[in-house]
Amino acid sequence: MEAKAQRAAMPKVGYVWMGEPNTDLSESALRQGLADAGYVIGGNLAFEGRYAEGDSEKVPALIAELLALEVDVLVTVGSQISLAARRATSTVPIVCVTGDPVALGLVTSLNRPEGNVTGLSLLVVDYSAKWLELMKEALPKLHRVAALWNPDNPGIVKEVEQLRTSARTLDLELTAFLGRAGDIDASLAEIAGDNFDGLVVTDDPALVLQQPRIIAFAAERRLPALYSFSTAVQQGGLMSYSTDFFSIWRRAAHYVDRILKGDRAADLPIEQATSVVLKINLKTAKALGLSIPPTVVARADEVIE
């Protein structure tokens, strides 16, 4: 009885991220959202974070560890982790942020999830359709584009399919290179050895860990790059076009709160994120010898000068 009372007084949230501790915008936004809802971590809420440090093979064990701790809610970032969590449990509520949870088989429908999974849909396939279009507008001479991706992530597979379709429409030549931790060295070497005009970095969570390195590589090679995480622009990346991850993860905390207060994941419709943000770093453009057209700069939500 005492253990049950203690658990009721101190609910426990488990969180799984592909990267490393203290490098994750998603977690900081989630914590902010929980604070906004009145939770004090270590006071009236226990927060258990687990980090794969770029190794996707660690994910199932991390999830099993959290389930063994009897977390009340499991929060997952991205398609791969969310699918692994769903395979691991059909009873513990899961709050996830993914591209298309219906196509992934995580839920039956957005309005009626019907299982133990709810959260937010990023609509990544929809906004990834704009990546090459924006690059072409910013770089009229663009012709040959490299893309970094993770073929093990179903959501990223869809993004690359969309990129290929966009490339055909825009008469661009697109070549996809593996962006997994064990492949990134060889991929960057191949990209460096060929004559590419641009680079697209897809939004696989594992690539966030590689982002500083990719930004440095792009600067060294004078290669214009568009990133799917807005944090890249603050770090010196040229452009980003992505959803507002901070606001989305603050919103994810609302789902955690509802579940902790007794709602079932099956009864919480999945929200579709519609806010997409364009950021441009004109300092980087100048360093690359580029002049971004004023029409593109005018459309940006944030410009670093």
What does this 3D model show about the protein?
- The protein is α/β, with parallel strands linked by helices and 305 residues long.
- It has 2 domains: 2-123 and 244-275, Response regulator (Rossmann fold, 3-Layer(aba) Sandwich); 125-243 and 277-304, 3-Layer(aba) Sandwich (Rossmann fold), CATH 3.40.50.
- The chain contains 13 helices and 13 strands.
- A 7-stranded mixed β-sheet has the order 7-6-8-9-10-12-13, sandwiched between helices. A 6-stranded parallel β-sheet has the order 2-1-3-4-5-11, sandwiched between helices.
- Strand 1 (12-17), helix 2 and strand 2 (46-51) form a beta-alpha-beta unit.
- Helix 6 crosses helix 7.
- The protein is elongated, with a radius of gyration of 20 Å.
- The model is unreliable at 1-7 (pLDDT under 50).
Layout of SSEs?
Elements: H1 2-9, E1 12-17, H2 25-36, E2 46-51, H3 59-68, E3 73-77, H4 78-88, E4 94-98, E5 117-121, H5 124-128, H6 131-138, E6 144-149, H7 154-170, E7 173-178, H8 184-192, E8 198-201, H9 205-221, E9 225-227, H10 231-234, E10 239-243, H11 245-260, E11 271-272, E12 276-281, H12 282-287, H13 294-299, E13 302-304
Parallel strand pairs: 1-2, 1-3, 3-4, 4-5, 5-11, 6-7, 6-8, 8-9, 9-10, 12-13
Antiparallel strand pairs: 10-12
Helix pairs in contact: 2-11, 3-4, 6-7
